[in-house]
Amino acid sequence: MQTKKQIAISAIDNNKSTFTDLSDRIWEYAELSLKEFKSAEDYCKTLESLGFEVERNVAGIPTAFLGKYGSGGPVIGILGEYDALSGLSQVGGASERCELTKGGSGHGCGHNLLGAGALAAAYGVKEYLKSTAQPGTVIFYGTPGEEGGAGKAFMAKEGIWYGLDAAITWHPFDVNEVAVGTCNSCIQVLYKYKGVASHAAGDPEHGRSALDAVELMNVGVQYLREHTKDDARIHYAIIDGGGASPNVVQPTASVLYMVRSKMVKDALALQARVDKIADGAALMTETSYERVFIDGCSNTVPNATLEALAYENMKAVELPSYTEEEWALAEAMKATYDSHGELSIAAQYDKTARAEINALTDGGKRALNDFVAPLHKGYHFSPGSTDVGDVSYQTPTVQVYTACYTSGAPGHSWQNVSLGKTSIAHKGMLYAAKVLASLAIDLYEDPDTLAAAKAEFAENIGDGYVCPIPENEFAKAIEL
Ligand SMILES: [Zn+2]
Ligand SMILES: [Zn+2]
Question: Which residue has the higher pLDDT, 254 or 476?
Fold first, then answer.
């Protein structure tokens, strides 16, 4: 098996500039969710040049696409992302905050690496399928709008992942580890109230305040918070306060709500209660409102069989090592933030793992984590959300993290934008590509493990997939 995996690993190594250049170009485009037009086209052209059969406009989303190679089963999907974050433009490789384009966007979540690394993995798998004549298909999925827009959930609404035997992906992080456990589901809805303007002193009885409606809605939701499950989270932001004049009765006001819960069906039920509070606020103030569905994504369904297999491959693939210059840059970068929390999931739960990590990192002082963190085998819940959750309800799914950033680096930060275009991040990306390709090869070669992953999946999805996206909704870039 190792020799077969070596075919994929060598294919990735022999073409590494194709993937690192692609990552750097996506870094430069830094396109926001569901507007990744240049990025998507670059991916499609790269996939075509590497011998994949490309399909654009997947699930009716202009920046969603796929690249396919092979025939027959098993069919393994590899997921890529490529959207950036607004306000995070940053000079690459600089260890101080320095905007590249004033007010521009940047890859603070490393999706330039994520997509290019996933594509590199798909290429490695393709070369393995080609040279071994092993039956099987690999599909690279270009999934837009992870940061906003939940592209994968809209793709899942069309059922596109039901035909897969498994899906695998990764995310840039500050440590190498398997992303075990589950996370919250999330639904976003915008409430746009409309009232009647009037002179607030001279003609108050004819005014109907949209801002009052927003405030009453927020008060109502505060009371609801006492009656939710422990894992639920309800966040809000006032998008439009109706203007800056207190002496005008505000005719418009809008509030954006984000409702999270451990299970997507609970998030949907909680969201329906928030809708009732919105109705109540309109009734109290004699205003009306428009309910705008923004997006939604499901909790992730864990798969211990795939997690264990991913861990074996993380340990088997050669880890990156760093030059003196890379260590120096990493140390300068680490000095720009205070890190907190345990490094790795395993260290949060397990004393032995914590001690092991402590020893490997010199008590958290080392700037780069050049080891694989132990696999956490018990329960783990993360309160954040990802649209990978919707994929994980349609096919057995696993994710790994690899160290592309400095130890303890804050998420969605200028530091990550900066490092995302350096050789440190490229090394983490190519390591991830080799791990994913090796993991996929195990699934083609070992039908028993694949069957075990599928059996576990069938058990873990319970009553099955409840899509958080309403039937008549389509993916859209939202300007707020
Ligand atoms: Zn992110
Ligand atoms: Zn991300």
Answer: 254
* pTM for the whole structure: 0.95
Ligand 2 midpoint to CA 447 (Å) = 31
Find where tokens 């609801």 sit.
Answer: 224
- Smallest-distance ligand from the CA of 412: 1
Q: How many whole angstroms from 410 Cα to the centroid of ligand 1?
A: 11
Looking at all shown ligands, the one closest to residue 148's CA atom is 1
The total of other beta-carbon atoms located within 10 Å of residue 272's CB is 11
Distance 224 CA to ligand 2 centre (A): 30
Measure 276 CA to ligand 1 centroid, in angstroms: 31
CA–centroid distance, 150 to ligand 1, in Å, is 12
What pLDDT does 1 receive? 67
- Give 352: exposed, middle or buried? Use CB within 10 Å, 0-12, 13-18, 19+: exposed
Check residue 70 and give left, alpha or beta (phi > 0: left; psi -120 to 50: alpha): left
Q: How far is residue 361 from each of residues 318, 342, 420, measured CA to CA in Å?
A: 19, 12, 22
d(CA 296, CA 301): 16
Residue 140 Cα to ligand 1 middle (Å)? 20
Q: How many CA atoms lie within 13 A of 418 on its CB side?
A: 21
**Distance from Cα 237 to the centre of ligand 2, integer Å:** 21
- Give per-residue pLDDT as tens, 406-464: 999 999 999 999 999 999 999 999 999 999 999 999 999 999 999 999 999 999 999 99
At 403 the three-state DSSP class reads strand
